[in-house]
Amino acid sequence: MVNAAIERGQSVPVKARRNRRLGTIASATTKDAAGGERLIPEPQEPLFPILSLKGLLARSATKVPSIAEHGDFIELIAGRYAIGIALDLLGVGISDEVLVPACHCTAMIDPIVAKGATPVFYKIDRLLNVDIADASSKVTPKTKAIMASHMFGFPQDGPALRSFADQHGVALIEDCAHAFFGDGMGTYGDFVIGSGRKFFPIAQGGCLVTRHPGLRDVKLQSRGLVANLRDALTLIERSLKFGRLWLLDPPLMLLERLRGKGKPTTEPDDSLNPEPAPEEREIDYFPDEEHIGISGLSKILWRMTSPGWVARKRRENYRKLLDLVGEGPGLRPLFPDLPDTVVPFMAAFWVDRLEEIFPSLEDAALPMQRYGQFLWEGVDETVCPVSVDMSKHLIQLACHQDLTDTELRRIAGAFREIVLREN
Fold first, then answer.
1. pTM for the complete prediction?
2. Where do the domains of the chain lie, and which CATH numbers do they carry?
3. What are the residue ranges in the chain where pLDDT is below 70?
4. DSSP E strands: which ranges in 163-313?
Protein backbone atom coordinates (compact mmCIF):
# COMPACT_ATOMS: atom_id res chain seq x y z
CA MET A 1 0.00 0.00 0.00
CA VAL A 2 2.83 2.43 0.77
CA ASN A 3 4.68 3.60 -2.33
CA ALA A 4 8.46 3.77 -2.68
CA ALA A 5 8.67 7.55 -2.41
CA ILE A 6 6.95 7.50 0.96
CA GLU A 7 9.08 4.61 2.21
CA ARG A 8 12.15 6.73 1.43
CA GLY A 9 10.73 9.49 3.58
CA GLN A 10 9.92 11.87 0.75
CA SER A 11 6.83 14.03 1.07
CA VAL A 12 5.10 16.98 -0.51
CA PRO A 13 5.49 20.39 1.21
CA VAL A 14 2.58 21.16 3.53
CA LYS A 15 2.45 24.89 2.86
CA ALA A 16 -0.64 25.81 0.85
CA ARG A 17 -0.48 28.21 -2.09
CA ARG A 18 -2.88 31.09 -1.58
CA ASN A 19 -4.53 33.35 -4.11
CA ARG A 20 -6.67 36.43 -4.02
CA ARG A 21 -9.91 34.47 -4.31
CA LEU A 22 -9.28 32.10 -1.40
CA GLY A 23 -10.25 33.55 1.94
CA THR A 24 -11.15 32.23 5.36
CA ILE A 25 -14.20 30.47 6.74
CA ALA A 26 -15.44 29.71 10.25
CA SER A 27 -14.64 26.22 11.45
CA ALA A 28 -17.68 24.11 12.29
CA THR A 29 -15.55 21.90 14.53
CA THR A 30 -12.83 23.78 16.38
CA LYS A 31 -12.80 26.94 18.50
CA ASP A 32 -10.16 29.58 19.15
CA ALA A 33 -8.22 29.86 22.43
CA ALA A 34 -11.04 31.89 23.98
CA GLY A 35 -13.67 29.36 22.95
CA GLY A 36 -15.02 31.56 20.17
CA GLU A 37 -15.22 31.32 16.41
CA ARG A 38 -12.04 30.06 14.78
CA LEU A 39 -11.23 31.20 11.26
CA ILE A 40 -9.45 28.73 9.01
CA PRO A 41 -8.24 28.97 5.39
CA GLU A 42 -10.56 27.83 2.65
CA PRO A 43 -9.43 24.53 1.11
CA GLN A 44 -6.73 25.08 -1.47
CA GLU A 45 -8.22 22.40 -3.73
CA PRO A 46 -11.91 22.00 -4.69
CA LEU A 47 -13.93 19.76 -2.40
CA PHE A 48 -16.45 18.89 -5.13
CA PRO A 49 -16.24 18.91 -8.96
CA ILE A 50 -15.82 22.32 -10.59
CA LEU A 51 -16.46 23.77 -14.01
CA SER A 52 -13.55 23.41 -16.43
CA LEU A 53 -13.06 23.13 -20.17
CA LYS A 54 -11.21 19.87 -19.68
CA GLY A 55 -14.17 18.37 -17.87
CA LEU A 56 -16.72 19.61 -20.39
CA LEU A 57 -14.73 18.36 -23.37
CA ALA A 58 -13.65 15.02 -21.89
CA ARG A 59 -15.34 12.00 -23.40
CA SER A 60 -15.36 8.26 -22.81
CA ALA A 61 -17.23 5.55 -24.66
CA THR A 62 -17.25 3.35 -21.56
CA LYS A 63 -20.75 2.52 -20.36
CA VAL A 64 -21.13 3.24 -16.66
CA PRO A 65 -24.25 2.15 -14.73
CA SER A 66 -25.98 4.98 -12.87
CA ILE A 67 -28.92 5.33 -10.50
CA ALA A 68 -30.82 7.34 -13.16
CA GLU A 69 -31.53 4.11 -15.07
CA HIS A 70 -33.84 2.65 -12.43
CA GLY A 71 -37.04 4.66 -12.70
CA ASP A 72 -38.52 8.09 -13.25
CA PHE A 73 -36.06 10.84 -12.40
CA ILE A 74 -36.52 14.35 -11.00
CA GLU A 75 -33.83 16.87 -10.06
CA LEU A 76 -34.21 19.04 -6.97
CA ILE A 77 -32.00 21.66 -5.35
CA ALA A 78 -30.80 19.23 -2.65
CA GLY A 79 -30.89 15.54 -1.80
CA ARG A 80 -32.67 16.19 1.48
CA TYR A 81 -35.75 17.31 -0.48
CA ALA A 82 -35.63 14.10 -2.50
CA ILE A 83 -35.93 12.26 0.82
CA GLY A 84 -38.80 14.54 1.81
CA ILE A 85 -40.75 13.84 -1.37
CA ALA A 86 -40.13 10.10 -0.98
CA LEU A 87 -41.54 10.27 2.54
CA ASP A 88 -44.59 12.17 1.26
CA LEU A 89 -45.23 9.53 -1.40
CA LEU A 90 -45.05 6.89 1.33
CA GLY A 91 -47.49 8.84 3.50
CA VAL A 92 -44.97 9.16 6.32
CA GLY A 93 -46.11 11.55 9.04
CA ILE A 94 -46.65 12.04 12.75
CA SER A 95 -46.23 8.86 14.85
CA ASP A 96 -44.49 7.00 12.00
CA GLU A 97 -40.92 5.68 12.23
CA VAL A 98 -38.08 5.42 9.71
CA LEU A 99 -35.04 3.21 10.30
CA VAL A 100 -31.75 5.02 9.60
CA PRO A 101 -28.05 4.19 10.13
CA ALA A 102 -26.52 5.30 13.42
CA CYS A 103 -23.59 6.65 11.37
CA HIS A 104 -25.21 9.32 9.24
CA CYS A 105 -25.21 12.80 7.77
CA THR A 106 -27.80 14.90 9.57
CA ALA A 107 -29.24 15.91 6.17
CA MET A 108 -30.70 12.38 6.12
CA ILE A 109 -32.50 12.94 9.40
CA ASP A 110 -33.84 16.48 8.94
CA PRO A 111 -36.56 15.49 6.42
CA ILE A 112 -37.83 12.72 8.69
CA VAL A 113 -38.16 15.08 11.64
CA ALA A 114 -39.64 17.80 9.42
CA LYS A 115 -42.44 15.40 8.47
CA GLY A 116 -43.21 14.75 12.12
CA ALA A 117 -41.88 11.19 12.04
CA THR A 118 -39.27 9.60 14.31
CA PRO A 119 -35.84 8.41 13.17
CA VAL A 120 -34.89 5.06 14.70
CA PHE A 121 -31.18 4.29 14.51
CA TYR A 122 -29.74 0.87 13.72
CA LYS A 123 -26.18 -0.39 14.13
CA ILE A 124 -23.48 -0.64 11.47
CA ASP A 125 -20.28 -2.65 11.42
CA ARG A 126 -16.73 -1.36 10.97
CA LEU A 127 -17.04 -1.42 7.18
CA LEU A 128 -20.23 0.66 7.47
CA ASN A 129 -22.52 -2.26 6.55
CA VAL A 130 -26.09 -2.42 7.85
CA ASP A 131 -26.53 -4.68 10.87
CA ILE A 132 -29.61 -6.49 9.55
CA ALA A 133 -30.26 -8.27 12.83
CA ASP A 134 -30.24 -5.02 14.80
CA ALA A 135 -32.44 -3.30 12.21
CA SER A 136 -34.91 -6.20 12.43
CA SER A 137 -35.09 -5.77 16.19
CA LYS A 138 -36.07 -2.12 15.72
CA VAL A 139 -39.09 -2.78 13.45
CA THR A 140 -42.46 -1.92 14.99
CA PRO A 141 -45.99 -1.49 13.60
CA LYS A 142 -45.10 2.20 13.17
CA THR A 143 -42.11 1.50 10.89
CA LYS A 144 -42.75 2.78 7.36
CA ALA A 145 -39.30 2.58 5.75
CA ILE A 146 -35.63 1.78 6.15
CA MET A 147 -32.97 4.08 4.72
CA ALA A 148 -29.62 2.51 3.81
CA SER A 149 -26.56 4.41 2.57
CA HIS A 150 -23.83 3.30 0.17
CA MET A 151 -21.24 5.32 2.07
CA PHE A 152 -18.34 6.72 0.00
CA GLY A 153 -19.63 4.73 -2.99
CA PHE A 154 -19.03 1.27 -1.48
CA PRO A 155 -22.14 -0.91 -1.75
CA GLN A 156 -24.37 -2.29 0.92
CA ASP A 157 -25.79 -5.80 0.48
CA GLY A 158 -28.66 -4.86 -1.82
CA PRO A 159 -30.38 -8.27 -1.99
CA ALA A 160 -30.29 -8.58 1.81
CA LEU A 161 -31.83 -5.12 2.20
CA ARG A 162 -34.51 -5.88 -0.39
CA SER A 163 -35.33 -9.11 1.42
CA PHE A 164 -35.48 -7.24 4.75
CA ALA A 165 -37.89 -4.65 3.36
CA ASP A 166 -40.14 -7.27 1.79
CA GLN A 167 -40.14 -9.46 4.89
CA HIS A 168 -41.16 -6.60 7.18
CA GLY A 169 -43.47 -4.86 4.74
CA VAL A 170 -41.57 -1.56 4.74
CA ALA A 171 -40.20 0.60 1.92
CA LEU A 172 -36.49 0.67 1.11
CA ILE A 173 -35.03 4.15 0.59
CA GLU A 174 -31.66 3.63 -1.04
CA ASP A 175 -29.38 6.57 -0.25
CA CYS A 176 -26.98 6.89 -3.19
CA ALA A 177 -25.77 10.40 -2.36
CA HIS A 178 -22.23 8.93 -2.39
CA ALA A 179 -22.90 6.48 -5.21
CA PHE A 180 -24.36 8.02 -8.35
CA PHE A 181 -22.43 5.46 -10.45
CA GLY A 182 -21.60 1.79 -9.91
CA ASP A 183 -22.96 -1.69 -10.55
CA GLY A 184 -26.12 -2.36 -8.61
CA MET A 185 -26.48 1.16 -7.23
CA GLY A 186 -30.13 2.18 -7.16
CA THR A 187 -31.28 -1.29 -8.19
CA TYR A 188 -32.94 -2.43 -4.98
CA GLY A 189 -34.66 0.62 -3.49
CA ASP A 190 -38.29 1.61 -3.81
CA PHE A 191 -36.89 5.15 -3.74
CA VAL A 192 -33.35 6.15 -4.68
CA ILE A 193 -31.72 9.39 -3.50
CA GLY A 194 -28.82 10.97 -5.40
CA SER A 195 -26.62 14.04 -5.07
CA GLY A 196 -25.61 15.62 -8.37
CA ARG A 197 -23.19 18.22 -7.05
CA LYS A 198 -20.99 15.52 -5.56
CA PHE A 199 -20.36 14.05 -9.02
CA PHE A 200 -20.97 16.85 -11.52
CA PRO A 201 -19.80 20.48 -11.84
CA ILE A 202 -23.09 22.07 -10.77
CA ALA A 203 -23.87 24.65 -8.12
CA GLN A 204 -26.49 22.56 -6.33
CA GLY A 205 -28.68 19.58 -7.00
CA GLY A 206 -30.07 16.29 -5.74
CA CYS A 207 -32.37 13.80 -7.40
CA LEU A 208 -35.07 11.26 -6.68
CA VAL A 209 -35.44 8.08 -8.74
CA THR A 210 -38.42 5.77 -8.34
CA ARG A 211 -41.04 3.72 -10.19
CA HIS A 212 -43.71 4.95 -7.78
CA PRO A 213 -46.56 6.28 -9.96
CA GLY A 214 -47.06 9.25 -7.66
CA LEU A 215 -43.80 10.82 -8.79
CA ARG A 216 -45.40 11.79 -12.08
CA ASP A 217 -47.79 14.04 -10.17
CA VAL A 218 -44.98 15.93 -8.42
CA LYS A 219 -44.73 19.40 -9.94
CA LEU A 220 -41.47 21.31 -9.65
CA GLN A 221 -41.05 25.07 -9.74
CA SER A 222 -38.78 26.53 -12.41
CA ARG A 223 -35.96 28.70 -11.11
CA GLY A 224 -35.93 31.13 -14.02
CA LEU A 225 -33.36 33.33 -15.74
CA VAL A 226 -31.98 35.02 -12.62
CA ALA A 227 -31.20 31.67 -11.00
CA ASN A 228 -29.42 30.52 -14.16
CA LEU A 229 -27.29 33.66 -14.22
CA ARG A 230 -26.52 33.32 -10.52
CA ASP A 231 -25.51 29.68 -11.00
CA ALA A 232 -23.25 30.62 -13.90
CA LEU A 233 -21.48 33.29 -11.88
CA THR A 234 -21.11 30.97 -8.88
CA LEU A 235 -19.63 28.19 -11.01
CA ILE A 236 -17.20 30.52 -12.78
CA GLU A 237 -15.99 32.14 -9.57
CA ARG A 238 -15.60 28.75 -7.90
CA SER A 239 -13.51 27.56 -10.84
CA LEU A 240 -11.38 30.70 -10.82
CA LYS A 241 -10.61 30.12 -7.16
CA PHE A 242 -8.80 26.96 -8.17
CA GLY A 243 -7.06 28.18 -11.29
CA ARG A 244 -9.53 26.98 -13.90
CA LEU A 245 -11.24 29.06 -16.61
CA TRP A 246 -8.43 31.60 -16.20
CA LEU A 247 -9.31 33.36 -19.48
CA LEU A 248 -12.44 34.66 -17.72
CA ASP A 249 -10.44 36.11 -14.83
CA PRO A 250 -9.57 39.54 -16.37
CA PRO A 251 -13.16 40.50 -17.27
CA LEU A 252 -14.42 39.38 -13.86
CA MET A 253 -11.66 41.34 -12.12
CA LEU A 254 -12.76 44.40 -14.07
CA LEU A 255 -16.37 43.77 -13.08
CA GLU A 256 -15.34 43.52 -9.43
CA ARG A 257 -13.47 46.83 -9.65
CA LEU A 258 -16.43 48.54 -11.31
CA ARG A 259 -18.62 47.26 -8.50
CA GLY A 260 -16.11 48.51 -5.95
CA LYS A 261 -15.30 45.01 -4.72
CA GLY A 262 -11.97 43.32 -4.25
CA LYS A 263 -13.38 39.89 -3.60
CA PRO A 264 -15.69 37.42 -5.32
CA THR A 265 -19.36 38.32 -5.65
CA THR A 266 -20.54 35.07 -4.06
CA GLU A 267 -20.23 33.80 -0.52
CA PRO A 268 -17.83 30.97 0.34
CA ASP A 269 -19.05 27.55 -0.74
CA ASP A 270 -21.57 26.28 1.80
CA SER A 271 -20.34 22.73 1.26
CA LEU A 272 -17.14 23.55 3.15
CA ASN A 273 -18.94 23.35 6.49
CA PRO A 274 -21.87 21.04 5.72
CA GLU A 275 -22.92 20.21 9.27
CA PRO A 276 -23.01 22.69 12.17
CA ALA A 277 -22.27 21.49 15.67
CA PRO A 278 -25.31 20.00 17.48
CA GLU A 279 -25.64 22.90 19.90
CA GLU A 280 -25.76 25.36 16.98
CA ARG A 281 -28.01 23.55 14.49
CA GLU A 282 -31.71 23.66 13.78
CA ILE A 283 -33.70 21.47 11.41
CA ASP A 284 -32.27 22.31 7.99
CA TYR A 285 -35.38 21.65 5.97
CA PHE A 286 -37.60 24.28 4.41
CA PRO A 287 -40.94 23.05 3.02
CA ASP A 288 -41.20 25.96 0.58
CA GLU A 289 -37.99 24.73 -1.12
CA GLU A 290 -39.10 21.11 -1.38
CA HIS A 291 -40.51 21.41 -4.91
CA ILE A 292 -37.91 23.69 -6.46
CA GLY A 293 -36.09 22.20 -9.43
CA ILE A 294 -32.46 22.84 -10.34
CA SER A 295 -31.57 25.53 -12.84
CA GLY A 296 -31.53 24.87 -16.56
CA LEU A 297 -27.78 25.49 -16.59
CA SER A 298 -27.22 22.79 -13.98
CA LYS A 299 -29.32 20.35 -16.02
CA ILE A 300 -27.24 21.07 -19.11
CA LEU A 301 -23.92 20.63 -17.28
CA TRP A 302 -25.22 17.44 -15.61
CA ARG A 303 -25.94 15.95 -19.03
CA MET A 304 -22.84 17.29 -20.79
CA THR A 305 -20.42 15.65 -18.38
CA SER A 306 -19.19 12.25 -19.57
CA PRO A 307 -20.10 9.49 -17.06
CA GLY A 308 -17.31 7.24 -18.34
CA TRP A 309 -14.71 9.96 -17.82
CA VAL A 310 -16.04 10.80 -14.35
CA ALA A 311 -15.90 7.16 -13.27
CA ARG A 312 -12.42 6.56 -14.69
CA LYS A 313 -10.87 9.69 -13.18
CA ARG A 314 -12.42 9.12 -9.76
CA ARG A 315 -11.12 5.57 -9.65
CA GLU A 316 -7.65 6.69 -10.78
CA ASN A 317 -7.55 9.53 -8.25
CA TYR A 318 -8.74 7.27 -5.44
CA ARG A 319 -5.91 4.83 -6.10
CA LYS A 320 -3.33 7.61 -6.42
CA LEU A 321 -4.45 9.20 -3.18
CA LEU A 322 -4.34 5.95 -1.22
CA ASP A 323 -0.94 5.13 -2.70
CA LEU A 324 0.46 8.56 -1.82
CA VAL A 325 -0.97 8.62 1.71
CA GLY A 326 -0.15 5.00 2.43
CA GLU A 327 -0.42 3.70 5.97
CA GLY A 328 1.43 4.44 9.17
CA PRO A 329 1.10 4.66 12.94
CA GLY A 330 -2.45 5.79 13.63
CA LEU A 331 -3.35 6.02 9.93
CA ARG A 332 -5.06 3.56 7.60
CA PRO A 333 -7.54 3.68 4.71
CA LEU A 334 -11.00 2.41 5.54
CA PHE A 335 -11.32 0.73 2.11
CA PRO A 336 -7.80 -0.17 0.89
CA ASP A 337 -9.17 -2.15 -2.06
CA LEU A 338 -11.25 -0.62 -4.85
CA PRO A 339 -13.50 -3.20 -6.54
CA ASP A 340 -13.97 -2.87 -10.28
CA THR A 341 -17.67 -2.09 -9.77
CA VAL A 342 -17.18 0.89 -7.40
CA VAL A 343 -16.99 4.58 -8.36
CA PRO A 344 -15.88 6.31 -5.13
CA PHE A 345 -17.15 9.57 -3.69
CA MET A 346 -14.24 10.35 -1.35
CA ALA A 347 -11.31 8.47 0.18
CA ALA A 348 -12.01 7.60 3.84
CA PHE A 349 -9.23 7.18 6.41
CA TRP A 350 -9.19 6.07 10.04
CA VAL A 351 -6.98 8.40 12.08
CA ASP A 352 -6.00 7.95 15.73
CA ARG A 353 -6.26 11.14 17.81
CA LEU A 354 -8.16 12.82 14.98
CA GLU A 355 -9.89 15.28 17.27
CA GLU A 356 -6.51 16.55 18.54
CA ILE A 357 -4.96 16.59 15.06
CA PHE A 358 -7.91 18.12 13.23
CA PRO A 359 -7.03 21.81 13.85
CA SER A 360 -3.69 21.28 12.09
CA LEU A 361 -5.47 19.60 9.17
CA GLU A 362 -7.84 22.55 8.93
CA ASP A 363 -4.92 24.99 8.91
CA ALA A 364 -3.36 23.03 6.02
CA ALA A 365 -6.36 24.01 3.85
CA LEU A 366 -7.26 20.46 2.83
CA PRO A 367 -10.44 19.55 0.90
CA MET A 368 -11.90 17.17 3.47
CA GLN A 369 -15.03 16.19 5.35
CA ARG A 370 -15.89 14.19 8.44
CA TYR A 371 -18.96 12.11 7.61
CA GLY A 372 -20.98 11.37 10.72
CA GLN A 373 -18.98 13.79 12.84
CA PHE A 374 -22.10 15.21 14.46
CA LEU A 375 -24.45 12.40 15.37
CA TRP A 376 -28.11 12.99 16.09
CA GLU A 377 -29.02 13.63 19.70
CA GLY A 378 -29.28 10.37 21.61
CA VAL A 379 -27.00 8.34 19.32
CA ASP A 380 -24.31 7.13 21.72
CA GLU A 381 -22.38 3.96 22.59
CA THR A 382 -25.56 2.25 23.77
CA VAL A 383 -27.08 2.69 20.30
CA CYS A 384 -23.99 1.89 18.22
CA PRO A 385 -20.42 2.03 19.56
CA VAL A 386 -18.99 1.70 16.04
CA SER A 387 -20.78 4.86 14.89
CA VAL A 388 -19.43 6.80 17.87
CA ASP A 389 -15.92 5.57 17.03
CA MET A 390 -16.39 6.61 13.41
CA SER A 391 -17.53 10.09 14.44
CA LYS A 392 -14.25 10.55 16.31
CA HIS A 393 -11.80 8.90 13.91
CA LEU A 394 -13.12 8.98 10.33
CA ILE A 395 -12.04 11.61 7.81
CA GLN A 396 -12.46 11.80 4.03
CA LEU A 397 -10.28 13.45 1.38
CA ALA A 398 -11.52 14.61 -2.02
CA CYS A 399 -10.69 12.37 -4.99
CA HIS A 400 -13.09 13.68 -7.63
CA GLN A 401 -12.41 13.92 -11.35
CA ASP A 402 -11.37 17.60 -11.43
CA LEU A 403 -8.32 17.24 -9.19
CA THR A 404 -4.90 17.37 -10.87
CA ASP A 405 -1.92 15.19 -10.04
CA THR A 406 -0.21 18.18 -8.43
CA GLU A 407 -3.24 18.83 -6.25
CA LEU A 408 -3.49 15.17 -5.23
CA ARG A 409 0.18 15.14 -4.25
CA ARG A 410 -0.22 18.28 -2.19
CA ILE A 411 -3.32 16.88 -0.43
CA ALA A 412 -1.71 13.51 0.29
CA GLY A 413 1.62 14.96 1.38
CA ALA A 414 0.12 17.49 3.77
CA PHE A 415 -2.32 15.00 5.24
CA ARG A 416 0.24 12.24 5.75
CA GLU A 417 2.88 14.55 7.20
CA ILE A 418 0.51 16.10 9.76
CA VAL A 419 -1.07 12.81 10.87
CA LEU A 420 2.26 11.00 11.28
CA ARG A 421 3.92 14.00 12.93
CA GLU A 422 1.17 14.50 15.51
CA ASN A 423 0.43 10.84 16.18
1. 0.90
2. 4-59+306-422 (3.90.1150.10)
3. 1-21, 248-281
4. 171-176, 191-195, 206-210
